[in-house]
Design a protein that fits this description.
With about 350 residues, this protein is α/β, with parallel strands linked by helices. The protein contains 13 helices and 15 strands. Strands 8-7-6-5-4-3-10-9 form an eight-stranded parallel β-sheet. The two termini are about 25 Å apart.
Length: about 350
């Protein structure tokens, strides 16, 4: 059982982040915001995949008008990603549900105060996003490129907001190094009770980034850190959502659709399990309700795994035994396994 860190609760549109709220999944559009149709299409695909919060880069003041048009056509919570220009943050505020800024790169106290006033006016939280690759030179000189430098950067920014009587804060501390990221969150957790947005930044391509993100986020989540998360991949953002869902489901923190359990095969296997498991995975990919399906290759571990699954098939020579919640239902020929398995899945509640 994972004991989650206790935090304040922050509202992001119709969602709550932190406290007892479930851990939410975020992603970020990689379209140009000026291409409104492409951005809306990507938002729709992200939402369909299970994304719950979408971040958009707003590079210029001119782009705020594009943001306004996007806001009119989607109800998913939106986050405006702003750097350097406080005017963009203020102009974006009416059309989003959260601002992502670093107060320290927005400018002097007056500019920070104006952003805070806009956030208060529209009931927006602010995420302070610290990135290990863009720390102030003074902090790197003082600490090196270390978790301590990341935490000091976060605390400087937190104090800027708190000084303006603003406490609807979410914090992220991201680096491409897993151990550095984990240590940074550990250190900051000793200092604040704000919700954490977790992630491993610049994790890599679909394959390598999935591995790094799964390890890093798995460690953080197992330690109880994380109220919302993003998997960062050099890939279609929809892939980020798929990986995030898989991580949360694997740790028992959320349940989504079907979960496939299958053995790695060995010399005892007398059925084409690789093909069978792939076909089952493909045939059940659109199932939305939570269901655990086991696809096992022999009678050594098969019946045991079948007892823990909603539906299971245990292979034998040229055939398969189908189980429902650990009870043997029937034996079917190998070429009928998929059809018979799907019939059982359809009738399982």
């Amino acid at each position: 059982m994972i004991n989650r860190r206790r935090t304040r609760t922050v509202d992001v549109g119709n969602m709550k982040i932190g406290g007892d709220s479930q851990i939410s999944i975020q992603s970020m559009c990689n379209t140009k915001i000026s291409d409104i149709d492409a951005t809306l299409d990507q938002i729709a695909r992200l939402k369909e995949a299970g994304c719950e919060i979408v971040r958009l880069a707003i590079p210029t003041l001119k782009d705020v008008e594009h943001l306004r048009k996007i806001r009119e056509k989607t109800d998913i919570p939106l986050v405006a990603d702003i750097h350097f220009d406080h005017r963009i943050a203020i102009a974006s505020a009416p059309y989003v549900d959260k601002l992502r800024i670093n107060p320290g790169n927005i400018g002097d106290d007056t500019k920070v105060r104006l952003v805070v006033e806009a956030a208060k006016k529209y009931s927006l939280p602010i995420r302070i996003g610290v990135n290990g690759g863009s720390l102030k030179k003074e902090l790197v000189t003082k600490h090196g490129n270390t978790p301590e430098a990341m935490v000091e950067s976060a605390m400087e920014n937190i104090r800027l907001l708190e000084k303006n009587d603003f406490f609807d804060i979410i914090v992220s501390l991201k680096a491409s190094d897993v151990q550095k990221t984990v240590r940074a969150y550990e250190l900051l957790a000793e200092k604040v009770e704000y919700p954490f947005h977790i992630g491993i930044t610049e994790a890599g391509t679909k394959e390598s980034g999935t591995i790094k993100s799964s390890v890093g986020l798995g460690i953080l989540l197992a330690k109880g850190f994380g109220d919302t998360l993003r998997v960062s991949l050099t890939a279609d953002p929809v892939e980020e959502v798929k990986v995030a869902r898989g991580i949360l489901q694997t740790l028992g923190l959320r349940r989504y659709g079907r979960e496939i359990v299958s053995c790695p095969t060995c010399g005892r296997t007398e059925i084409d399990l690789v093909r069978l498991a792939s076909e089952v995975e493909k045939a059940t990919e659109n199932i939305k309700r939570p269901i655990k399906i086991a696809v096992m290759g022999c009678v050594v571990n098969g019946p045991g795994e079948a007892s823990d699954a909603d539906i299971a098939v245990v292979g034998t020579k040229d055939a398969g035994f189908i189980y429902r919640k650990g009870r043997l239902i029937r034996k079917v020929q190998e070429n009928m396994i998929i059809d018979e398995l799907l019939k059982e899945i359809d009738t399982t509640k």
